[in-house]
Each structure stands twice: as structure tokens, then as C-alpha cells.
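Protein in question quoted in full.
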Amino acid sequence: IFDGCHFSLPFVQEEESEEEPKLKYERLSNGVTEILQKDAASCMTVHDKFLALGTHYGKVYLLDVQGNITQKFDVSPVKINQISLDESGEHMGVCSEDGKVQVFGLYSGEEFHETFDCPIKIIAVHPHFVRSSCKQFVTGGKKLLLFERSWMNRWKSAILHEGEGNIRSVKWRGHLIAWANNMGVKIFDIISKQRITNVPRDDISLRPDMYPCSLCWKDNVTLIIGWGTSVKICSVKERHASEMRDLPSRYVEIVSQFETEFYISGLAPLCDQLVVLSYVKEISEKTEREYCARPRLDIIQPLSETCEEISSDALTVRGFQENECRDYHLEYSEGESLFYIVSPRDVVVAKERDQDDHIDWLLEKKKYEEALMAAEISQKNIKRHKILDIGLAYINHLVERGDYDIAARKCQKILGKNAALWEYEVYKFKEIGQLKAISPYLPRGDPVLKPLIYEMILHEFLESDYEGFATLIREWPGDLYNNSVIVQAVRDHLKKDSQNKTLLKTLAEFVSSSISIYNYGNALEIYLTLRHKDVFQLIHKHNLFSSIKDKIVLLMDFDSEIKKVVEELEDRPELQHVYLHKLFKRDHHKGQRYHEKQISLYAEYDRPNLLPFLRDSTHCPLEKALEICQQRNFVEETVYLLSRMGNSRSALKMIMEELHDVDKAIEFAKEQDDGELWEDLILYSIDKPPFITGLLNNIGTHVDPILLIHRIKEGMEIPNLRDSLVKILQDYNLQILLREGCKKILVADSLSLLKKMHRTQMKGVLVDEENICESCLSPILPSDAAKPFSVVVFHCRHMFHKECLPMPSMNSAAQFCNICSAKNRGPGSAILEMKK
């Protein structure tokens, strides 16, 4: 609903759209409101400096751009049909329904009066009427008349056109006059005094008085025609001299033509687009009768045979229910892109939206981030918005939506160095219980907030998140808050959870910066519990060696101080072993300098882990290890060391003689995969039936069992001999089957590859003019195709004239490629073969 106040929005979007409107609207009020309460608007024309409004009661009002009346002219007692202004805005032409025509100077006494015996529908003064050489204007009723002032200041008239009904629209631009009558649109060249085109109207069923033609010059050579639902864009072009003959020097080409959805009441250009005022009729769903709907103002992008709608607004103008298509007019100001929608009871101004309007729309759609970005980019051009206000609104929006982390992160950019705003936002985050969210983004330098702010956040973390509390203590400089207050808070929490490592570690951060707060015993205990890297420095600095006797085990994980730890534990070899063992498990290479020492420690305190240590270590001396193991009679360790040193036969002998374990001996022989080792094992086992059984069960896949069976003495009783022989035969059958299977696969693959090679060699070889004889280097094909010739082509793709090849030998009729044969034989072999 319109109240007539400035900047009210007299339009409604037909449906909710995510697309931003292109135009904004305001009702032209002030004096216009007063005029239209008693009278009705019939026409209007627009100048960059002022407006001229004609009414049904024959009045012409000059208005400023806010709608205030500056001048009033009583021209006629009946309707004003049209008003025309020259480009300077100093001369005005008026015509009315009673046939009166007036052309006069607004700031001079120059005047022309004429009364015709028929209504004059249109008038247009020369755009440069202010010049003495351009005192011309045209009027239109039943005829189109051109008036021009002669050299004796007399006005003479000439008929430009008649006989096709009333002239209802005219537009003058430069040297061209365009007008519309009942039959179509004509263009007249005022210089050559020639009519250069006739554009017929498309829909002759529409009454031209009810659906008048709308004309608009986009520039000096482009005319836009809107009539009914049709739009045509015409371009005036110069005709080539060779095409002149008796034709006009110019012609018109229709560069775009398309249909619209509604009836056109007015047109105006907007860059390369069009603004179209449309008269809309709709059918009521209840009564099924046609009624007048709100007029529409559309921005469209013309194409060659169609158009694309950019935006569309339905305008709620006063009295739209009673208006007809002819009652609406669209006037525009070229300099400012202002569009005036004129109806009998209302005048609405449409203008392009500026950056402030764009930001308004973004804020309305809750697109705060885009609004903030737009304000930052155009901060010099925006007048109604401030970047800080938009930013604060954005933060509030994020908080309301629950995006607390994003809101806190945006505070850095939006609040900048404003300490007061920072503190205000922190308290706001405290009210909603989200102090943790803003903590990572608080300023720590420029500016610095009150200590209470930082202490409040630290207490919040201390109550619910020890890890987060420790992180802040590490990251925040100590001068941001009162250290003693925070230390006391930590100690209070340690009373409830005395072994909490995170709190102890945090306390250590304070200890490292101000150790005087604590006694040295407490400090050492915290350092050891936390494995603090400065524990040895603390011990040496304050001579705390006597204090670590009962805490020495805590030193086991001080990897960076290995040498110091080993030296400290020299008098406690069992603890020294535990420390080095853990260190070896963590990293095989860190304590490599102590691996020799560890051999004795493992042998003394932890034999079960000695063999795994010998296997995993690449730094222990094997001779030293072998000596220790032999001294202590560690058989398994000795066997491993002998085999690692390459003395496999001694290792096998020790397994057989010391361990008497045939399975271990066989496993050892398998690992070494040495024929001589198997021979030694067979010789040692030949007089031991249990060993022979073990060999028969496991030797089949590694050594020929016949070697063992032939050496068994007659009459020797061997346990489970039958089962062992059956297993040997089964293993042998399995090997035979595997070999036969492999053979079949190989034969099949060989045959397949042979067939593939045969097919490849049977394929034809292309011989053309580009190939040459490899012997004489001349083209392989003769220049005369009718002449008989012989060519030999080998599979290697080398080609020869038959006469260029040597004769085959008597022993073999087969021919070979000279080039490839020479590569496969030694020097001179080709000559020897030819001699043969």
C-alpha cells in the first residue's frame, strides 16, 4: 500500500526470488500528489534538469526532480496530448485535444501559436531548436506537418505524410524523425528530405488508439519500436554509393525482432538492454472475466529472434484497475538512468540500484559475508552503511545461528584493534557459554585487553578442559594475566586430582619460568613425573642427586640424555639394563654405542631376551657375543651366532650333539639351503633311527631321498618307516604332477605365440613410392607403372630389387636380408657366404 512518502516501494515481486532486483522505486510526491488529487496526468516529458507534466484539464506543470512545482501553464481547457522539449531544455512544444499547438521559449519571448480544426495528437521540436538554423517542429493529427521558420521569421509548413490515419506517436533524434500511424512506422531524413523506410505493424487486429505504438531512439541510428506485443530494433545504415540509383542514401535493417508476453505501453534503453512497461490483463479465477492487473516493468536482453528476461516487477500504481494500455507512458532521463512510469493517478520513478541498495538486499537475505565484502570493496561509494556495523550484524547473525567458531574467527577481522568492542564481544560470548570459541582469536599484543578477560577464559578452560587450558598457557604471554592467581587455581584443582599429568605439565610451565615459587623437591618430582627435558639441568644446578635415589626409574624415558642416564645408573646395573632394554625396544639405533655392554647385561639379568636382542641388533660385535655365550654355555645363542658368522657346519654339529633335536637340525639345514650341510646331517643321522625317521619325513622336497635310503644298513629298525616312505612317494607324485602341469602350460603358451608370430608374418606389407631399395638406394617402384618389375620384401621390412640381391647359394635356396644377416655375423661373413 502506498502512502505517497518518499522512497516508499510501490511494487511487489510476484514470487519470492533469490535474484536481486535491478531497479528500485519511489513515488513522485510533493507537488505531483497535489496535482493528481484534482486532475489526471495525460503525458510527461523528461529533461535532465526538470520534468514537464501535462494533464487532462489542459495544464502543463514544470517540476523539479523531487516533484515540486516550479511553473504552471494554462494551455487549454481540454487534455494535453503531448509535450516536447529540445535538448537544451529552453524551448517547449505543447499540443492538445482541441487542436491547439504552442511552441515557446521558457526563458525568452519566442512563441508560436496555431489552432487546427482537428485534435493534434503529437508534437516534436527539433532537438537543437535553440539554434537559429534548427527552428523546426512537427505536429501530427490526420497529417504529419513540418513547420520551419523562414529567413523573415515567418513560419511555413509542409506535409510530410497523410492518408494512413491519425499520427499517434513521433520521436525526433538528430536528423531523423520517426512516427507511427495506423499502418506502421516511418522514418524521415530531414537533411535529404526523404522518407527512408516503412515498418508495417504486425497485429492489425488491435485498435491503434487503444494500443498505441511506442517509439524510442537508443542512439542516433537505432530505433526501438514496441507495438502490441511485438518489439523491433531497427538500425539506420548508409547505403553504398553503387547502390544509390534513385533510392534514399540510407536504409533501415531490423536487427532484432521478438514477441513479449504482455501489451507494450512504453520502451526505454538501459545500456544494451531494454526497459519495457507492459499493460497486463488477467482472467479472474472466480468470475472467469478479464480484468486489468498491475502493470509490469521488465528489463529484458534482446537477442536476434527472442529475448531473455533479466528482471520483472509488478507495480501497484494508483487506479491501475481502471487504466487502459494507452493510459500508461514510460519516459526516461538518459543522463541518470531514471525511468518515469506515468499513469493518470500516479507517477512512479524507477532507478538503478546503487551499492547501498545492493548491501540492503544482501542484509535482508541474511547474506552478511557478501554484504561485508561488498562494503569493503565499495567503501568510498557507500553512504548509508558502515563496514563495522555490517560486521557486528554478521557476528550477531552467526551467534544466533550457532556458528560460534566462525563468529569468533570473524571478530579478528571485524573488531580489529578496538579493545572496547573486543571486551564487549567476550562478555557476550560468556553469556551464551562460548568463551572457549573466542579464546584462540583474542588479541595478545596490539591491543591488549584487561587481565580479567584472559583470567576469565583460563578459569573457563580449567573447569572443563585441561588440555585447552595447557595450550593457552603455552601460547599466551605470561604478562597478559596475573600468574599467581592462575597458579593458585591450578593447585586447587590438583588437590582434587593430584596425578593429573596435564595439570602437572601446566604447573611445570610455571616452574620453568619462576621456580622460586616452589621448593626444589616438589619441582624435581614434577619434572620427573612429566619427563621434563630440563630435569638433569635442575639436578646438577641444585645438587639434587640425593633426591633421585627413589626416583631413578623415572629417568628411563629420557631419550635425549642417554649418556647421562647410563652414567647415573652405572652403580645399578640391573636398572641400567632395564633402561637400555626399554630404549632398544623403542628404537634399535639410539643406544647403539651400548649394545656391546648390553650383551653382558642380558646374559646376567635377562637371558630370555638375549637371543631376540642378538637377532634385532645390527651394532653388537659378534665375536664378543660368541665369547660370552660360549663361556656361559648358551647353546641356542651360540648356534645363532655361528650361523650368522658363516660357520654353519659347527652350528649344525652343536644342534645335533648338544640339543639332540633333529627337527631343529632339519629346520636349520632348510634355512641355510646348503648341499654339504645336508650331507653332514645325513652322515650324522645314519646310525640313529629316530633321526632317520625325521629326515625321511622332511627331506623329500630338498634332497633326493634315495641318497638317504641307500645308506640305511640292512636290518636297522626304523620307527614309522612305512609312513615315512608313503609320504616320500606322495611328495614325489606331487612334484611329477606339478612338472606335467607346468609343461602343458609352456607348450600351450609356445603354440599360441607361434601362431601369433605366423599371423603377423603372413600380413601384407605396404610398398609405395617413398620406399627405397636398401642396396641401390633408388625408389623401390619404377616411375613407369606399366613396366614389369620384381621386388623382394623381407619380414624385417627391408626391401630390394630382385636384381640387386645376390643369387642364393647351391646348398640353400632360401634368401636372407643382407642388412640383418650382416648384423648377426662377423666382419666378412657376408662375403664368405656369397663365395659359397
Notes: The longest strand covers residues 250-259. The chain has 27 helices and 33 strands.
